[in-house]
Amino acid sequence: MNYMPGTASLIQDIDTNLVLHQTVERIHVGKKYGDIPRGIFVVRGENVVLLGEIDLEKESDTPLQQVSIEEILEVQRVEQQAKQESEKLKVQALKERGLSIPRADTLDEY
């Protein structure tokens, strides 16, 4: 590798691929959370930004309540439906005033 004078030579063209086992997806909704076991994940190096370890002492001090997978998924679904309904009401109110907000799925990507 050649270094250019006057530059920080931290740029490298190296991707690190990760294989993670016993992975868990944690879903947070309000003060509740649920852990869903996901198994093995392969993460391509171009998608790796930050990876950390959970501090078990701090985790036990959090005011969150662990619930079952079924319960957290139901709470998440209800929250998403409420958010969608709120967005529909907002769009309707803007339309009544002659304004509109373009939906994200109708925007062209450049």
From TrEMBL:
Q: Name one GO biological process term.
A: deadenylation-dependent decapping of nuclear-transcribed mRNA
Q: What Pfam families is this protein classified in? A: LSM
Residue stretches making up the Sm domain: 13-52
Q: Does the keyword Ribonucleoprotein apply?
A: yes
Q: GO cellular component annotations, sorted alphabetically? A: Lsm1-7-Pat1 complex; P-body; ribonucleoprotein complex
Q: What does UniProt give as the signal peptide span?
A: none
A GO molecular-function annotation: mRNA binding
Matching InterPro entries: LSM_dom_sf (IPR010920), PTHR15588 (IPR044642), Sm_dom_euk/arc (IPR001163)
Q: Which UniProt keywords apply?
A: Ribonucleoprotein, RNA-binding
This one is known as U6 snRNA-associated Sm-like protein LSm1 isoform X2
